[in-house]
């Protein structure tokens, strides 16, 4: 679960909806919630993108360790790859860009020395 903690302008705030969202996430409180669990917060779309990418990487790494050993088989990566186009707005690459290094790390972990890996950029 992910919860956006971005500041909201007071004139755009719906108090009833805000209360319902707060109540919803209270259910997942690790010590007092009716359905204890974990959720992570973010404040900007870039932070959400980075958090989600990290969580997906961790999931794939753990899958590879538990079920296949390392590395993850290319056909598994293909099966888990979304088929829909990525039409989300992207920020311009710049000094704060994290995507290149993270994607290379994911490729290396997923492919290892597997020739013809579908994640390879070469």
Tell me the layout of helices and strands:
Elements: E1 2-4, H1 15-26, E2 40-42, H2 45-68, H3 74-80, H4 99-111
Parallel strand pairs: 1-2
Care to give the gist of this entry?
The protein is mostly helical and 122 residues long. 46% of the residues lie in helices and 5% in strands. It is built from four helices and two strands, in the order βαβααα.
Keywords:
elongated; two-stranded parallel sheet; 122 residues; 2 domains; 5% strand; mainly alpha
What can you see in these coordinates?
This protein has two domains: 43 residues, no CATH class; 66 residues, no CATH class. Strands 1-2 form a two-stranded parallel ribbon. Helix 2 runs parallel beside helix 4. It has four helices and two strands; from the N terminus they run E-H-E-H-H-H. With 122 residues, the protein is mainly alpha-helical. Strand 1, helix 1 and strand 2 form a beta-alpha-beta unit.
The main sheet comes to: 2 strands, parallel
Task: Tell me the number of strands.
Answer: 2
The gyration radius over C-alpha positions equals: 19 Å
The helix tally amounts to 4
- What's the shape? elongated
How far the N terminus sits from the C terminus, by CA atoms, comes to 35 Å
Q: How many separate domains make up the residues?
A: 2
Order of helices and strands: EHEHHH
Give the averaged pLDDT, no decimals: 74
Low-confidence spans: none
Residues in helix, %: 40-55%
């Amino acid at each position: 679960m992910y919860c956006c903690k971005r500041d909201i302008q007071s004139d755009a705030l719906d108090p009833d909806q805000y209360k319902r969202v707060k109540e919803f996430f209270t259910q997942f409180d690790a010590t007092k919630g009716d359905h204890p669990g974990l959720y992570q917060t973010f404040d900007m779309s870039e932070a959400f993108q980075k958090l989600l990418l990290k969580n997906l990487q961790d999931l794939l790494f753990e899958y590879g360790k538990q079920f296949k050993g390392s590395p993850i088989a290319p056909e598994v990566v293909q099966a888990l790859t979304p088929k829909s186009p990525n039409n989300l707005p992207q920020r311009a690459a710049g000094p704060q860009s994290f995507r290149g290094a993270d994607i290379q790390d994911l490729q290396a972990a997923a492919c290892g020395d597997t020739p013809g890996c579908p994640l390879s950029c070469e």
